[in-house]
Write the structure tokens for this entry.
Amino acid sequence: MTETTTETTETTGQPVQADIAVTGLATMGRNLARNLARHGHIVAVHNRTKARTDALIADHGNEGTFVPAASLEELVAALKRPRKVIIMVQAGAPTDEVIEHLATILEPGDIVVDGGNAHFIDSRRRESALRERGLHFVGTGISGGEEGALNGPSIMPGGTAEAYQTLGPILESIAARVDDTPCCTHVGPDGAGHFVKMVHNGIEYSDMQLIAEAYDLLRTVVGKSPEELAGVFRSWNEGDLESFLIEITAEVLATKDPRTNGPLVDVILDQAEQKGTGRWTVQIALDLGTPVSGIAEAVFARSLSGHAEQRAAARGVLAGPSEKVTIEKPDEFIEDVRRALYASKVVAYAQGFDMIRAGSEMYDWTIDLGAMAAIWRGGCIIRARFLDRIREAYAKTPDLPSLLVDPYFAKTVSEGQESWRRVVGVAASAGVPVPGFGAALAYYDGLRRDRLPAALVQGLRDLFGAHTYRRVDADGAFHLNWSEDKSEHQA
């Protein structure tokens, strides 16, 4: 570790030249700066409120070499060329303001990094604008929360290959590592990094919803207590379902409320909040024409949970099942839920990777899907054992049409389908909402069916709107004269 210094000058009297800078020292920015310093980088630090800069130096100045700056001008002056500045401020207008200020004081070839949860469209706009001014802009997804920022996140940088050549070694040095490989790679041009981070967060929404549905089923239908379910999730975390989210689910369920000493989960208000990245994922998926039904249902489930007045009104009006569902063999049902959870998670990831491919094709990013699976194996919120399987699947078949047709995943999901169907059936009979499980199963069945009822939908569209249809036995588009002799004409 670098010897401690918080001075702006060395014993020679010459200014300390920092390797990289961080502006915005709320928890994420503060921890990222500490991570950089711990790995031997000289870090210039700045915050709009100087007290935060002072607090960082006072509390953690012994972790490495920091160069405090009272202004962005001082921050830039403290940096080696090409200058590298990481922005960790609130997304939107505040980020634009900092970028514009930096653009006026940086010089051609310098690098501006946005490490917040920006919309990738904003990153594309910013990259284009700064490129015209001779600056590199690197929209960078950082996953892992506060702990990851400090101890090793998964990092998804976009921007030019030239910028990554300079910036990459620094980012790779602070990223999580799996099999001695950093969980950081150049994702692609302009907004590619923030696009992939957006989809990552969408998958995270789906993953959490599926886990919550599994918990709800086992508690409501089987009657397991939170403490007992903590044990179930711990055992699941030793197999194919091993992941960070399963691990912390067990922790949450095992935690007692400090006020009542009852299960903490029972005193947490059942209204899940969201910051917007899941919603962005669904909106962009619609634009791309890529079905991400699992992610969409997870977003809508959070929205429904927040409609407290509607839910209160419905409880006194809407009837539930007339008979209580009894599970005669609880252990077998628990295993069914485990299999259904795994199959549904595979579908969620498959849909997410399909969306990354679609975005890559739309914006000409040439994103390596296997590399994305590799950098998600550590540091990030959705890190999981089976990401290695995903990485292997894309390494073997880069143009895999769907993750679900990879031999391993096809076999695994197919073998779990009977459990999956029983779980969704029991949930419906018991009145337990499982939109995530249900949507994943419907997607699986829609993908594997020889014929879909979309034929009828297209027939209806042609009847009321003359939208035409295509035939299975001829090329081209056709329209039927529905109101007269029902003769067919090629459009």
